[in-house]
Amino acid sequence: MRLWLNILWLLIPTKWAIVAAPFIFLGLAFLFWFLFGALFIEKTNPVHQDHTARLERLIPLAEKGDVDAEFEAGIIYRDGLAGQIDERKAFKLFSRAAGQGHIAAQYALGRLYAKGQGVRQDYARAAQWYLKSAGLGFNPDAEFSLGDLYFDGRGVENDYSKAISWYRKAAFQGHAGAQMVLALMYEKGWGLERDLTESYVWFALAAEQAAAAMRYRDDIDPRRELEKLKQRMSRLQLKNGNKRFRAIRAQIRSNKK
After folding, report:
1. CA–CA gap between residue 80 and residue 114 (Å, rounded)
2. How far apart are CA 181 and CA 170, in angstroms?
3. Greatest CA span in the chain, whole angstroms?
4. Which residues in 22-53 are b (16+ Cβ under 10 Å) and which e?
5. What is the rounded CA–CA span in Å between residue 123 and residue 111?
6. 50, 82, 112, 185: least CB-packed within 10 angstroms?
7. How many domains are contained in the chain?
8. How many CB atoms lie within 10 A of CB 61?
9. Given a cut of 90, is residue 176 above it in pLDDT?
10. Quick check: is 210 in a domain?
11. How far apart are alpha carbons 111 and 3 in whole angstroms?
């Protein structure tokens, strides 16, 4: 009897191991998945999902020639809002919309040409599309970009007077980048006579939207430039500058209504 009890005692661990093995394996597998599996599983991005669904609705409309659908689908492809950037598709869609006179698509197409995204870089073609988009005076981004091309002589002949003209059009519509560039041009005398009062006016306007202005020139803070400029100006210049600043600001606000 004692012999049988000893044999049974020796067999119990083995039997329990056989019975418990599948559960131990499942437990270890679950623990491994919980700790490491999430590192290799692609997480669902709700923003990508929303834009993917939107893209599925836009494409059939774009194929039928809906100009707004062409533009919106182009934005999704250009910026990778559905999860993957496709600049070639964006270029094709913007081209179709721009050809139908869509102002925002004309500007977007110009940017692709200027940056060489989805198409070979061509500043001359960029200038042509910026000009079409800016022609009616409703797109300060296109006006500013056209001013940049004339300022640097890319795709067009270098012409400060034309650059200033386009910058001013954009600046009077509240474009922060154009306001800061104008301020610099008046301060440095680039293409026009130096005028600290005018420089003060445009720096003051740019300073009211400093974050937006610094997206175009992150090395220049219009608020600091404004304070430095004040130290160089007479009381009369400051008085005249503040008067003109208020008048132009009122005009800009009126233009936006």
Report:
1. 19
2. 11
3. 118
4. eeeeeeeeeeeeeeeeeeeeeeeeeeeeebee
5. 9
6. 50
7. 1
8. 15
9. yes
10. yes
11. 91
pLDDT in tens, 236-248: 999 999 999 999 9
The Cβ of residue 72 has, within 10 Å, a number of other Cβ atoms equal to 21
Q: Is 189 inside a domain boundary?
A: yes
* Side-chain half-sphere CA neighbours of 164 within 13 A: 13
Alpha-carbon distance 105 to 142, whole Å?
11
- The whole-angstrom separation of Cα 68 and Cα 1 is 92
Q: Which residues have C-beta within 8 Å of that of residue 250, sequence separation ≥ 6?
A: none
- Token pair, residue 156, equals 């067009």
- Give the structural domain span for 234: 172-257
Model-level pTM?
0.81
Asked whether residue 192 is domain-assigned, the answer is yes
Say what the pLDDT of residue 256 is. Answer: 77
Read off the pLDDT of residues 64-121 as tens digits, 9 standing for 90 and up: 999 999 999 999 999 999 899 999 999 999 999 999 999 999 999 999 999 999 999 9
Q: What digits encode the pLDDT tens for the residues 23-43?
A: 445 555 555 555 555 555 556
Contacts of 112 (CB under 8 A, 6+ apart): 78, 87, 90, 91, 94, 118, 119
Report the candidate in 35, 74, 37 with the shortest Cα–Cα distance to residue 55. 74
Tell me the mean pLDDT in the region 172-197.
96
The overall average pLDDT reported for the chain is 88
